[in-house]
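Data deposition worksheet. Section B asks for the primary sequence of the deposited chain exactly as it was used as input, without tags or linkers unless they were present during the calculation. Section C holds the resulting structure in token form. Section D is free text for depositor observations; keep each observation to a single sentence. Incomplete worksheets are returned to the depositor.
Section A, Depositor: J.P.
Section B:
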Amino acid sequence: MTNPDPESGTSRDDLLQRLELMESMIAEGRQTTMRCGWIFVLWGLVNLAGMGWQMVPPQHSRWVWPVCLGVGLVIQVIGLALRKRERPRCKGTQSRSVEAVWAMMGIAMIVYVGAVLATHFDWQYSYLSALFIIIGLAHATSAVILRWRVQAVVAGLWWAGAVAVLVFNSRRAANDIFLIEMCFGMIAFGVYVMLLETRGRSGLKGERA
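Section C:
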């Protein structure tokens, strides 16, 4: 038997229901990230392709990133359009917050990278470091919203890379750090959340069966 709290007028059942609601909203928010796992993999591969292209004839170096980033953006837009029907119509606060964080990061990246490429300042180590800071900030904000330790670790990886680029201050170190970030901060994390989504779908189908 449950009795209401005389001070707050809230019963134990009400508190449990609120807790369950919060947990479900957080789980829904994580599902939003999981559904976008392919985007992390996509941009990891796009950046690795750009890195590889830079090693071929230097006369084409100025076209490397505009072409690679443009192709990646087109693929992402098409992919989002194809998956639009799979998204739930009603979204919780966490889901909308996470989507807002990544949408604003995307806009910031387009403005920043576009300006840097247009002014030819992409050779500076501070440019690469700032990119890592922006991506890490999006991961960290999402991790706080969703209370997700794994994503917090990923954010730490991006920030550590940003610091390392400035500390080592060499082209070889920058390339190595860039490779590590793309493989683990992008592709590995993307594959991880995609696997979580697949397991979740399998569990849901098992329950329905």
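Section D:
Helices lie at 12-35, 37-53, 61-83, 93-119, 125-146, 149-168, 171-208.
Confidence is low (pLDDT under 50) at residues 204-209.
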